[in-house]
Amino acid sequence: MFDVIVVGAGCVGALTARKLSSYQLNVLVIEKENDVGNATSMANSAIVHSGYDPVPGTLKAKFNVLGNKMYPELCRDLDVHFEQIGSLTVALYDEQIPMLKELAERSKQNGVEVKLLSKEEVLEMEPNISPDVKGALLAPSAGIVNPFTLVVHAMENAVDHGVELHLNEEVKEIKSLQEGFEVITSKGKYQTKVLINCAGIYGDKIHSLIEPIDYNIRARKGQYFVLDHYAKGLVNHVIFPLPSEKGKGILVSPTTSGNYIVGPSSEWSDDKDLVSCDKPTLDNVRAQAQAMVPSIPFNQVIRIFAGNRPTPSTHDFVIGTAKQYPNFINASGIESPGLVSSPAIAEYIVETYVSKVLTLVKKDSWSGKVRPRVHLNELSESERNALIKKDHHFGRIICNCEKVTYGEILDELSRSVPPHSVKALKKRTRAGFGKCQGGFCQPLVIQILAEHYGVMFSDINYDKLGSEICKYSTKGEEK
Amino acid sequence: MIRHRLVIIGGGSAGMAAAVKAYELGEKDILILEKNNYLGGILNQCIHNGFGLHEFKEELTGPEFMSRFSKQVNELGIKYRLNANVLSISKDKVVTYSSEEDGLVEVQADAIILTTGCYERNAGAIQIAGDRPVGVYTAGQAQLYLNCYGYLVGKKVFILGSGDIGLIMARRMTLEGAKVLGVAELMPYSAGLNRNIVQCLQDFNIPLYLSHTVKEVRGKNRVEKVIIAEVDEKMQFIPGTEMEFDCDTLLLSVGLIPNNDLFNSLGIKFSKTRGAVVNQDMETEIPGIFSAGNVLHVHDLVDYVVSEAREAAVGAVKYLNNSTKHAGFAYEIKQGFGIGYVVPQVLNIDDASEKVSFKFRVAKPFKDIVINIKEGERLLKKIIKPAIVPSEMEIVYLPKELFQKEDHTITVSVEERK
Asked: For chain B, which end, N or C, has fewer CB atoms within 10 Å of the first or last residue's CB respectively?
């Protein structure tokens, strides 16, 4: 019997598993996707919000502010790229100035440091912002993060400390036992004393497997553009419009990989797995972004994508225990500001709810740090040469656009949450992330994966199981 | 630091042709840096024939064509490094590359020729709407998997874009047992060579839908359906013209983009081709740094790539021998009405060889026109064309003495004959 089963390995699930791994507990994480962090945690704005925007007193406000404070240390320990570049919420019309002041007041209530800037101050900081700008609210604690490696490294840290991770396994049924639950999945049955529901957009479905619920979680889709990294200095902060009831609006921001991200839209979707893009919506995203930053070089778009926000009908994060079961803990519907809130939520649910059911005994051997990765671009020429001398794989470039080496790929494969798909490897290393979108390096990546796992070239998936790229061999017999 | 007089980045057809030419002109201190573990670049995957009609007066396959050059490179003993990926070029011509064997190496060059070819526009760049399933590839990617790895990416294929690689792949995948359902082209005319339309589509009864593009891709995990629709002159979808194709693959042949990454940090100007602005020697704004082949502008035929690379080699050797003045009378070459682009964009006439080449494409198809090349208002050359299409590059050679150094502007333009 497990002490805890965590359903879902997005940012909340992975960070919860990491927190649990610091205690003497027997933990299993069940994830239906072929990689961790493969849904909402993967397709979002990658912003560590300051907390100026959520309504004071809500769980969103509470965990946003707490989470923001945890990020610098968290990302240092987990070796995740995080930059506290600050955000600017810009007013483009005179009538928006009172709204800026209102936001400043809200920030104060939430305990977030902000500063109102004049038009001149804004333009000095951000020369590419529209000259129509009337003022802005600067929130210095906002930042940008690599959301892919955040989840992967958090889970890696957990697995390094004994947490078991099952991918490609879907929870089908949950039965209440005398003590705990029986979890029936697409692959087997497990018993656990505590269940933590971190199923994101499917959080309502997982909760309803154990008792009737009076809320739902709907998919609210956001569509984005990703620009190549040539427009250096386009914007230096996360640039937001004034928020509306639809959310924080369409932002323009640098990413931790030097690209720029523009989006998201906001539209309800009846299909929680649907991440399609459409032209009218993207045209609207483009127009709204251009109102703030007119010179965005949209001819440098290398990708469009969409992600689904898990929006609960309760208008706030769903955090707490099930009505009838103190050992069934929900942490779902974690829409924006979810990424920033997730480390605080993880800590909270373990310390507040798990601790009530299980005795938490710290592991002496626990460390919140992962084995450091090699950061080639931070090395001097001589350091890099010394590394290549030690391990020649670091000399061979596999991804030409993003200059990812064979050595970095092999390192990822040697870790405790290794990539199994082309996309999982891409999320970890950026191989295939650049302007050619894998046109040149994808066959090499497939070859490396096939070799590592001892399978056929044709067995390697792009993402989910059943998404093989080279399905049909032209030679020999078909499988 | 290692020194070489001439460093050529990219060992494809352009790089090899430039190296051989420079060697023949007496420049022996050459280093070719190639990222792959073989020379020849993209031609290795182009196993169809049709290469070399101009160069060798015979029809060769891609690998045959490139091996004639790699053989020469080897015979002449021209130095090259394989698996050598160039990370950067500096303004003072330090080339930094990384390889397993050599580590991180800085090479001080006296002259550089960039021949890194191009890459394909992909689904991200053209922002195809719809679901994001697996099964959407560029045609070149599918070609690589098929010809070099022995795998078909799908069995029921639709192709967007009538670029040559897409057309070639329509035939190639059909021959391997896939069903190619059709090719959609956004423009009212094909982007590929006419011979490819005939030999790759018509001969296999594959329909070509002009003025059509993909409206939506559907499929959760893999591509299940591609919906195309007709577009009007403003490129807007015409309601009611939708057609659905049940397929597992969408190939894209929607253009090639010069692979100019290494030039981005140099702060040099780029032209409409998305390649560097160059002069008559294929020399960029930085003296001694040259660019040729598909990294400069995308060619239809490798034969033209090779001849352009040789022009760059001539320029580089001239530069290395201190025979280039970078002074005297300079022309700016402009594209006038109906012209998509012209290469070069700058002509330093006093540095020019006896013949100056002008390469250009029209912006759209024309019938019954005259192409005028003028120095100021004075006509230098008049070319009568019964028909002309953007997919076919034009090359005109003008004798040096034609230029009168009277007006600093040379314009290439289309004149429609009434």
From this structure: C
φ/ψ (deg, to 5) at B257 = -125, 125
Instruction: Summarize chain A as % helix, strand, coil (round to 5).
Output: 35, 25, 45
Per the CB < 8 A criterion, the answer to whether A170 and A32 are in contact is: yes
Residue type for position B114: L
| DSSP string for residues in B79-106 | EEESS-EEEEE-TT-EEEEEETTTEEEE
Of the residues B98, B213, B257, the best mutation for testing chain A's interface (the one with the most A CB atoms within 10 Å of its CB) is B98
Which residue numbers in chain B have pLDDT < 70? none
> What ipTM is given for this predicted complex?
0.94
**pLDDT value at A205 more than 60:** yes
DSSP A33-48: SSSSS-STTTSS--EE
Give the distance, in angstroms, between the CA of residue B295 and the centroid of all CA atoms in the same chain. Answer: 6
Residue A476: predicted pLDDT: 63
The reported pTM is: 0.95
Domain count of chain B? 3
Selected catalytic residue, list A49, A161, A207, A420: A49
The reply to whether B244 and B261 lie within a common domain is: no
B290 with B342, same domain: the answer is: no
DSSP state of A437: T
Dist CA A362 CA A368 (whole Å): 12
What residues contact A419, with CB distance under 8 A and at least 6 apart? A35, A412, A413, A425, A427, A428, A449
Q: Judge whether B132 and B156 are in contact, CB under 8 Å.
A: no
Type of residue at B30: I
Q: Is B83 on the interface with A (CB under 8 A)?
A: yes
| The CATH homologous superfamily of the domain defined by A84-143+217-309 | D-Amino Acid Oxidase, subunit A, domain 2 (3.30.9.10)
Instruction: Residue A406: count other Cβ atoms within 10 Å of its Cβ.
Output: 21
> Contacts for B228-231 with beta carbons within 8 Å, 24 or more apart?
B228/B158, B228/B160, B228/B182, B228/B184, B231/B186
Burial pattern B12-48, b for ≥16 Cβ within 10 A else e, equals bbbbbbbbbbbbeeebebbbbbbbbeebbbbbbbbbb
- Are A120 and A181 spatial neighbours (Cβ–Cβ below 8 Å)? no
Q: Does A396 touch chain B (CB under 8 A)?
A: yes
pLDDT digits (tens, 9 = 90+) for A434-451: 889 998 999 999 999 999
Partner residue opposite A385 with nearest CB, options B104, B154, B176: B104
Question: Using CA atoms, how far apart are residues A97 and A444, in angstroms rounded to an integer?
Answer: 53
Residues of the domain holding B179: 122-254
Please give the Cα distance from B251 to B286 (Å, whole number).
38
Answer whether residue A479 shows pLDDT above 80. Answer: no
pLDDT at A247 over 80: no
Dihedral angle of Cα A379, A152, A42, A52, to the nearest 10 degrees: -80
Task: Please say whether the beta carbons of A15 and A152 come within 8 A.
Answer: no
3-class DSSP assignment, residue A258 = coil
Does the active-site annotation cover A237?
Answer: no
pLDDT at A211 over 70: yes
Of all residues in chain B, the one with the smallest CA distance to A223 is B129
Does residue B98 share a domain with residue B14? yes
Same domain, B153 and B189: yes
CATH of the domain at B51: 3.50.50.60
Q: Which of B219, B218, B221, B227 is nearest to B245 (CA)?
A: B227
Tokens 């066959």, residue located: A443
The fold of A376-459 is Arc Repressor Mutant, subunit A (1.10.10)
SS3 A74: helix
Backbone angles phi, psi at B167, to 5 degrees: -65, -45
Residue A193 contacts residue A27 (beta carbons within 8 Å) = no
